[in-house]
Amino acid sequence: MSATRYRRFLKLCEEWPRDDTKTGRDLGTFLRQRVASAFREGENTQISEPEKCDQIYESLARINGNVYRQRFPRVRDTSFTGVAAEECRVLLKGSLQQMDEEKKGLWKTIMERFSSKSPEDLPEKAPEK
């Protein structure tokens, strides 16, 4: 029976869309990682709580099949702010890039501003003398 569950989860992972714009926060990628860790031995993995496993699968399958989106359609495709979904994606992407810039550190930021080299060619630390 475990083999059947494993195959069902694999099929769900294949159907689940992957969004490359959401690096590090993509639900499809996270789902694939969790299935891989839960079924380490593949079809031979022993499930300690088969009912809970089936319940999780059914929930994920309903989300992937847009059951709730069809059951409860949205009147408008905007958020509470009135901003459209695509505009929210653009704003989120910009703010995430800005946060990455802030995480860099002072030395790397200064070197990028005053250097003609690309950021990948810069050293991680200042050379010691």
Shape, per Cα inertia axes: flat
Order of helices and strands: HHHHHH
Mean pLDDT across the residues is 80
| Number of structural units classed as domains | 2
Number of strands: 0
Terminal CA distance: 65 Å
| Fraction in beta strands | under 5%
What's the helical proportion of residues? 55-70%
Number of helices: 6
What is the topological layout?
Elements: H1 2-15, H2 27-38, H3 50-64, H4 67-71, H5 85-103, H6 106-114
Written description of the protein model:
There is one protein chain. This protein is an all-alpha fold and 129 residues long. The protein has two domains: 2-71, no CATH class; 77-129, no CATH class. The protein has helices at residues 2-15, 27-38, 50-64, 67-71, 85-103, 106-114. α1 (2-15) packs antiparallel against α2 (27-38) and α1 (2-15) packs parallel to α3. It is flat and about 60 Å long. The model has no long low-confidence stretch (mean pLDDT 80).
